[in-house]
Amino acid sequence: MTGKGRGTWASRLGFVLAAAGSAVGLGNIWRFPYVTGKSGGGLFVAVYIVFTVLIGLPTMIAEVLLGRTTQSSPVKAFHKLRGRSPWLGVGWLGVAAGFMILSFYSVVAGWTIHYVYLAVTNAFEVAGSADNIGALFDALVANPWANVGYHLLFMSITVSVVLGGVQSGIERWSKILMPALFLMLLGLVFYSIFLPGFGKAASFVFAPHMEAFTFGSVLAALGQAFFSLSLGMGAMLTYGSYLPKETGIPKSALWVATLDTTIALLSSLVVFPITFSFGMEPAAGPGLIFKSIPIAFSQMPGGYVLCIIFFVLVVFAAITSSISLQEVVTSNFIDLFGWRRWKVCLTTGAIIFVFGVPSALSGVPSSPFGPLLKALTDRTFFDWMDYLTANWMLPLGGLLIAVFTGFVIDRSLRREEFKRGTTWGGLYGFWLVLLWVLVPTAIFVVLLQSTGVLGLLGIGG
Ligand code: TRP
Questions:
Q1: Relative to the CA of 260, which ligand 1 atom is closest?
Q2: Does ligand 1 lie within 6 Å of residue 314's CB atom?
């Protein structure tokens, strides 16, 4: 998408692949298992799925609809529909969230690049034991040069893809990479079924364990749903602006959410059997997949090649997601100020890189952003970025997008856009009721509960 004319995806499949490319990424493979482990397992997963269906899906439809109606990036979209109004702030909140998410996302993606290198050099087999494989991760996060270097490398890749305009690359890549990733995960699940810890893992992921479940887990489930579906900051709005007019929105959104959720669940069914079979801690945090998945590869026949392929696919899944974050930021400044794509892209990319350095240093023992900050605030800089964006900014953005679509925009415009190109127009009323009542109330209550205000008033736990 360069120059004046806005491009469109070639087909519904093009949009679904691109949007699923944005949705499916480290959020599914890295973040979902790690947050599930921290939040106690089964009940968290159940709440997550309910949130995805009842809150995520209607919000996604709203975002895509706003994008297609306005053919604009977030801030301009609100401007077109409502003029100079506080609603512009929702667009800017999204741009800010995009900056912050990409800054730490790129650090994690950097780790996955290092894991390609470790796989190529056969480091996992050489390491031998689960403990030694875990030590490889600990060594990586403690190394400032490696972290900042890989972060720089990944940001450079992201910026160069977005420089060329999103559609040319994404549609073609996603068509091959997404199915490949899906097949590899299926294969890994099949391997995990035969591990001694599979039963325990399946119970951990699917059986409701009340003990470890708190209100914090409800907030985490809401945040994970928004993060994984790329919602609440205008990424789906931006991608929706490239959706052809004759393509139905509800069905496309359902496809994206289904693919996204399936891949997250598959990833958990790979990670936790390994975790339990090798006596690891499910609540290990952000290092969970890096410490567990390589163990499986180090022990299976053909594991050397498969491990390389797997981490290469994860890197690509991270790229198709990171470009959607960079694209929101980029298209925003292009649409608003008419700046050149390459100028915006390079400048914002550089700023995001710099802003991500404290996250890249969060595992370094002597850095003030890591252990020191954690001792003071219970979170490293990296943890703060992750927590604030996913659990607070995205749900808040989603709430405002739902309210805007439900109560503020022109009714006939909304109806027409929802019903265009779909046989699912009959769901319009149902969707509206969700947007009017359930989505705002549920998000509001979870956020309010999590601020502790309800506790102060003596309501709720
Ligand atoms: N959803 C992506 C993932 O799961 C991450 C991502 C891409 C994202 N674009 C986003 C998250 C926009 C929130 C908002 O890895």
A1: 4
A2: no
Q: pLDDT tens digits for 336-358?
A: 888 998 999 999 999 999 999 99
- Helices H / strands E in the chain, number of each: 25, 0
Q: What is the pTM of this model?
A: 0.94
Whole-number Å distance, alpha carbon 230 to ligand 1 midpoint, is: 4
Ligand 1 neighbourhood includes 235 CB (under 6 angstroms) = yes
* Distance from residue 99's CA to the centre of ligand 1 (Å): 12
Element (H, E) at 118: helix 88-120
pLDDT in tens, 76-131: 999 999 999 999 999 999 999 999 999 999 999 999 999 999 999 999 999 989 99
> For ligand 1, atom 7, which residue shows the shortest CA distance?
321
CA distances 412 to 156, 189, 402, 408, 409, Å, are 43, 47, 17, 12, 9
Atom of ligand 1 nearest to the CA of 233: 14
> Radius of gyration (Cα) for the chain, nearest Å?
21
Give CA–CA dist 166/161, Å, rounded: 7
275 Cβ contact partners less than 8 Å away, ≥ 6 residues apart: 37, 197, 201, 281, 282, 284, 288, 292
Cα(417) to ligand 1 centroid in Å equals 25
